[in-house]
UniProtKB/TrEMBL annotation:
Pfam families according to UniProt: Tim17
Source organism, top-level taxon: Eukaryota
Membrane-spanning parts: none
InterPro entries xrefs: Pmp4
Descriptive protein name: PXMP4 protein
GO annotation, cellular component aspect: peroxisomal membrane
Length: 213
């Protein structure tokens, strides 16, 4: 047993020594990026999939758990692959040109986005829409910082909130098929299901009656 413990400690010392080597730093950063992408993707997707599945999806417990596991795995895998691709291409470009320039980030992310998130499926669609909303806010702020757009005299957020909610409810009411399925499910629960009840049980306690009365 002591010999096994000594071997393990020696292995850990060797691993820690390797991690301190500057010449391997770029490659190790790519590997840790893969690790962080996988962990972060699982942390983000698992609770979201759990809530959405049990709120809106029908089926057996086994089917629901399988759906949660599949969504979590897909999100975790895709984010890990993307971070690995992005950081690898960043390191390669920097090595080839001898320095890091802003275009490297854009190019590496474009390639990663095409390869990893290019398939149009529910998970990728949600991630892209999440990013798109933040990109629009970020570009708006950047335009003001750079002086391309004058600084608003009043906070424009109330107007943005009004336009966003006005547009999404108009789409839901009259062009529902254009909205992402999970958003349709959420809005159906909020705005359609609240129009239907039979007695106090499905008015206050449950959303829908489960019996055949």
């Amino acid at each position: 047993m002591a010999g096994g413990g000594d071997a393990l400690r020696a292995l850990l010392r060797a691993a820690n020594a390797l991690l301190q080597q500057r010449r391997y730093r770029a490659a190790l950063a790519v590997l840790k990026g893969f690790r962080n992408g996988a962990v972060y993707g699982a942390k983000i997707r698992a609770p979201h999939a759990l809530v959405m599945t049990f709120l809106f999806k029908s089926g057996s417990l086994r089917e629901k758990l399988k759906s949660i596991a599949q969504a979590t795995y897909t999100h975790s895998r895709n984010l890990a692959y993307f971070v690995f691709t992005y950081k690898g291409l960043m390191a390669l470009q920097s090595r080839l040109q001898g320095k890091k320039i802003p275009f490297h980030s854009f190019f590496a992310a474009c390639i990663g986005g095409w390869l990893v998130f290019g398939e149009n499926n529910p998970i990728n669609s949600q991630i892209i829409m999440y990013l798109l909303s933040r990109i629009l806010f970020g570009l708006s702020r950047l335009a003001v910082e750079k002086g391309y757009v004058p600084q608003p005299k009043q906070d424009p957020f109330p107007l943005v909130a009004a336009l966003v909610w006005g547009t999404v409810l108009w789409l839901f009411e009259y062009h529902r098929q254009t909205l992402q399925p999970s958003l349709q499910s959420s809005m159906t629960y909020l705005y359609d299901d609240s129009n239907v009840w039979h007695d106090v049980s499905d008015f206050l306690i449950y959303n829908k009656r489960t019996d055949s009365k």
